[in-house]
Amino acid sequence: MLHWHGDTMDLPTEATLLASCDRYPVQAFRIGRCAWGLQFHLEVDGVAVEALARAFPEEAATAPGLLETAPVELAALARHRDDVCRRFAAFVAARAEQTATRAFFTRRASTWEQRFAGDGPRYAAAVERMGLRPGQRVLDLGCGTGLALPALRAQVGTEGVVVGVDLTPAMLKTATREGRHAEAQLLLADAARLPLPTGAVHGVFSAGLINHVSHPVAALGEWARVTASEGVLLLFHPSGRAERAARHGRDLDPDDLMAEEHLRPALRAAGWHLDCYEDAPHHFLARAVRGHE
């Protein structure tokens, strides 16, 4: 709401300052990737200025010539306003799919464990195929409520590092409620833009996530970036492709990335070599090795 302000603030250490002026050092800031704050009003027009002056005559009197200079000031502001609003709208639109994914899984987070609790042994059997060693580091990308985390911890032992990554806070909250935070560090992050250095982990486990990212081949490349040479990627789903298609009342998509003839070259382009592919009635599993031919 447009009004005069006499207050300002100091930013917390995790904030990024975006704009300032002599009178107010903090004019715009960002915290994380989803929260912005503005101390000024890009949306102001002549009608708003006149209404403000009428509503606050005493304050308006402290700004001589406010109404007279407003047209010139607003004309200068308009150019910047339109550019900022246009760019912000484009930014939000580019993240629309990510936002939709979060909304989809947020609604289901509280009942996820009840729906898929019986899949625990399947996840454990899939993790076993990774062949991880004690002391190694592994990611569970799109970990959800953390069904695979206990099995991953068992493979790398107490000296290893297990990180569960998910885009949806509600999923990680449920994982914590289920005690999975005792098995792994839980990280809220975009799996297509991981906050990790190159070659940081020895293995990546991902159950169903590849079907929910905007650019699957680019995501595979990002997972390759954070994986050390000879590291392992395991793509898993507790249902086979045909079973899932039938459950949703559709035929198998001939362009499905998870079909072996599409997945193999996609993995190769991203820096992986597919060494095992299983599309069975009751599970899907693809194992790839980083930089290995």
Counting H and I runs of at least 4 residues, what is the number of helices? 11
Structural class: alpha/beta
What string gives the helices and strands in order? EEEHHHHHHEHEHEEHEHHEE
Helix content: 25-40%
User: Beta-strand level of the residues, as a percent range?
Assistant: 15-25%
Q: Give the strand order of the largest sheet, numbering strands 1, 2, ... along the chain.
A: 6-5-4-7-8-10-9
| Shape, per Cα inertia axes | elongated
Q: Compute the average pLDDT.
A: 92
Describe the structure concisely for a colleague:
By secondary structure, the chain is an alpha/beta fold. It has eleven helices and ten strands.
Verbal overview:
By secondary structure, the chain is of the alpha/beta class. The chain contains 11 helices and 10 strands. The strands form 2 sheets. The chain has a 7-stranded mixed β-sheet with strand order 6-5-4-7-8-10-9, sandwiched between helices. Strands 1-2-3 form a 3-stranded antiparallel β-sheet, with no helix packed on it.
Secondary-structure blueprint:
Layout: E1 15-19, E2 28-31, E3 35-38, H1 46-55, H2 57-61, H3 66-94, H4 96-108, H5 112-116, H6 120-128, E4 137-141, H7 149-156, E5 161-166, H8 169-177, E6 185-188, E7 201-207, H9 216-225, E8 227-237, H10 241-247, H11 260-270, E9 272-280, E10 283-290
Parallel strand pairs: 4-5, 4-7, 5-6, 7-8
Antiparallel strand pairs: 1-2, 2-3, 8-10, 9-10
Helix pairs in contact: 1-3, 6-7, 9-11
